[in-house]
Amino acid sequence: MLKKMDGFTGQKAIVIPKKILRLQCESSPLIADIHITHIGYYPRAEFHYRKRNQGAEQHILIYCLDGKGHVKVKGEEYEILPGDFFIVPQNEQHIYGANPATPWTIYWIHFAGTAADEIINMMMQKFGILKGSVGYSLQRTDIFDAIFRQLERGYDKENFLFANMSLKHFLASFLFADKFKSDPVSSGTDVVNRSIDFMQQHIHNMLTLADMARHVNLSPSHFSFLFKQKTGFSPIEYFNYLKVQRACEYLEFTDMRIKEIAINLGIEDPYYFSRFFSKAMGLSPADYRKKKIWS
């Protein structure tokens, strides 16, 4: 039977660069205790199958919205139905996959930090096993979507604080489903957000600082000052991280050659692309593709 780790129509996923984790998460007293390392959504994931003999470096939570699946972890096997979730503790050998007849739709998160073990222990104490059932909640998926949207917009400090502090709310919705409530999430419309929207719209092109500043009607120097003040990154550095994020998707989910990916991101020199990708992710594009580190 065909088995796939990824490659599903409509899928989306983000892997946080290790450098960003060090800068934004592990050094922050607000989110060092628990933070996201990978996050994604696989709709109707036909033939989905994942086996990790050595486990994952992080804890994993998978939430099934539709369809069916199965998981084997710590010697126990569970059937997963709509509204169910399961936890895979870090470094635990495991296998999970979609039901062939009715493949699941799942939200998934890898998370780490000094308090992550305690979250796993609390779930075990509450449910007795590594699987629970909380039903479907639009509020819960809205929180996930808000987390994903912020991480998709890049790696500035406010995005990271929002996403990872929201992670606790998301995890609490499983631990305390009967008490779970959510408030709507709104986004700002300031010049920095407008410029990030502009970057995303032109992810396949090269932009200069002058291009970005012109879009928000500011001088390059003033725009650069405001942008770095809010995000902690220069506009060009931020734009490059967005390109790296998109490159990760291409490397994982397509068969495009590295040169094609570079050109698709507006970078004509594949060696330059490889250098700045390696600097952000800690490994070359070719090695990243081989490693297959998505959930």
Automatic annotation (TrEMBL):
Highest taxon listed in the record's lineage: Bacteria
Domain HTH araC/xylS-type: 193-291
GO molecular function, one term: DNA-binding transcription factor activity
Keywords tagged on the record: DNA-binding, Transcription, Transcription regulation
Pfam families for this protein: AraC_binding, HTH_18
Residue ranges of the TM segments: none
Protein name: AraC-like ligand binding domain-containing protein
Naturally occurring in which organism (per UniProt): Chitinophaga arvensicola
